[in-house]
Amino acid sequence: MDHAADAHRTDLMTITRFVLNEQSKHPESRGDFTILLSHIVLGCKFVCSAVNKAGLAKLIGLAGETNVQGEEQKKLDVLSNEVFVKALVSSGRTSILVSEEDEEAIFVEPKLRGKYCVVFDPLDGSSNIDCGVSIGTIFGIYVVKDGEPSLKDVLQPGRKMVAAGYCMYGSFCTLVISTGTGVHGFTLDPSLGEFILTHPDIKIPKKGKIYSVNEGNAKNWDGPTAKYVQKCKYPEDGSSPKSLRYIGSMVADVHRTLLYGGIFLYPADKKSPNGKLRVLYEVFPMSFLLEQAGGQSFTGKERALDLVPTNIHERSPIFLGSYDDVEEIKALYAAEGKE
Ligand SMILES: O=P(O)(O)OC[C@H]1O[C@](O)(COP(=O)(O)O)[C@@H](O)[C@@H]1O
Ligand SMILES: [Mg+2]
Ligand SMILES: [Mg+2]
């Protein structure tokens, strides 16, 4: 799809108009989701602005340090967490929040409660903050069951999410979301302060030419991962080797995978048998988006969205990307099971 040409046809569709259009397809809807999303969008704009100023404002000092005015400086991930917690609580549409930055789930006080639970990584790619490389925010949304909210509302398989998305703070600011009817990408116009639909109905290429993994962990990989990466470099069918791209920010690596195709891996290894990435606010939202775009996501054992987490910061190995590329790694794990 020619996204540049499509951007013209979208007639300056802002994210607010887009979500209101979606809402009008559900006559029973009372606009709760639209309000929640507008608060998430506000959080993204706020963090985007802080990220853009970080190099100058010395926001990237260590948490607890003081700046020249004697004010306490906050690390960007601490600041981003505060921004999102405030934005989500003040929406009046959430009951439970799970953030990478908070050890415990946050239960919203009864008078501000609403029907959603939001799981999020307020700032993903922390190792890239200080050098100005793309970082992002990842979020997933569940509906809270009736009655007193409890951890059971969040410890659910990823397929139960009603929406997921991420915002990438890169050379421009991009917000990618899915409410279960395809994946749509918006780009922030800084002069308008509006996210404009630039990438409607994103579909990941069926097969890609890029693999993305931290190869520094290779000596500890299991057989199927090692075999897969070997095949990327030395294809047995005589085709060209895949290119390696690895930014080290999941948001940026997954965004490129979504647009260009290929595979992103954060596998298990001998040192980290559950991999590194967190199920609720990294693996699930990205898997939801990739499936909605026509790709796949696999843990080495099962479809990632079928996992049932038992604690809020649980980790899982992850292989996600183009349908055919993920099929190949699935076949290698299936073959290992038969050896
Ligand atoms: O440095 P490594 O081990 O390759 O890990 C990179 C991964 O770690 C992360 O930075 C973890 O996320 P946080 O920065 O939110 O902790 C991912 O964005 C990225 O995919
Ligand atoms: Mg992260
Ligand atoms: Mg983080």
Automatic annotation (TrEMBL):
<dbReference type="GO" id="GO:0006094">
    <property type="term" value="P:gluconeogenesis"/>
</dbReference>
<keyword id="KW-0479">Metal-binding</keyword>
<keyword id="KW-0378">Hydrolase</keyword>
<dbReference type="GO" id="GO:0006002">
    <property type="term" value="P:fructose 6-phosphate metabolic process"/>
</dbReference>
<comment type="similarity">
    <text>Belongs to the FBPase class 1 family.</text>
</comment>
<dbReference type="InterPro" id="IPR000146">
    <property type="entry name" value="FBPase_class-1"/>
</dbReference>
<dbReference type="GO" id="GO:0030388">
    <property type="term" value="P:fructose 1,6-bisphosphate metabolic process"/>
</dbReference>
<dbReference type="Pfam" id="PF18913">
    <property type="entry name" value="FBPase_C"/>
</dbReference>
<dbReference type="GO" id="GO:0005829">
    <property type="term" value="C:cytosol"/>
</dbReference>
<keyword id="KW-0963">Cytoplasm</keyword>
<keyword id="KW-0460">Magnesium</keyword>
<keyword id="KW-0119">Carbohydrate metabolism</keyword>
<dbReference type="InterPro" id="IPR033391">
    <property type="entry name" value="FBPase_N"/>
</dbReference>
<dbReference type="GO" id="GO:0042132">
    <property type="term" value="F:fructose 1,6-bisphosphate 1-phosphatase activity"/>
</dbReference>
<dbReference type="InterPro" id="IPR020548">
    <property type="entry name" value="Fructose_bisphosphatase_AS"/>
</dbReference>
<dbReference type="InterPro" id="IPR044015">
    <property type="entry name" value="FBPase_C_dom"/>
</dbReference>
<protein>
    <recommendedName>
        <fullName>Fructose-1,6-bisphosphatase, cytosolic</fullName>
        <ecNumber>3.1.3.11</ecNumber>
    </recommendedName>
</protein>
<dbReference type="GO" id="GO:0015979">
    <property type="term" value="P:photosynthesis"/>
</dbReference>
<dbReference type="InterPro" id="IPR028343">
    <property type="entry name" value="FBPtase"/>
</dbReference>
<dbReference type="GO" id="GO:0006000">
    <property type="term" value="P:fructose metabolic process"/>
</dbReference>
<feature type="domain" description="Fructose-1-6-bisphosphatase class 1 C-terminal">
    <location>
        <begin position="204"/>
        <end position="333"/>
    </location>
</feature>
<dbReference type="Pfam" id="PF00316">
    <property type="entry name" value="FBPase"/>
</dbReference>
<feature type="domain" description="Fructose-1-6-bisphosphatase class I N-terminal">
    <location>
        <begin position="13"/>
        <end position="200"/>
    </location>
</feature>
<dbReference type="GO" id="GO:0046872">
    <property type="term" value="F:metal ion binding"/>
</dbReference>
<dbReference type="GO" id="GO:0005986">
    <property type="term" value="P:sucrose biosynthetic process"/>
</dbReference>
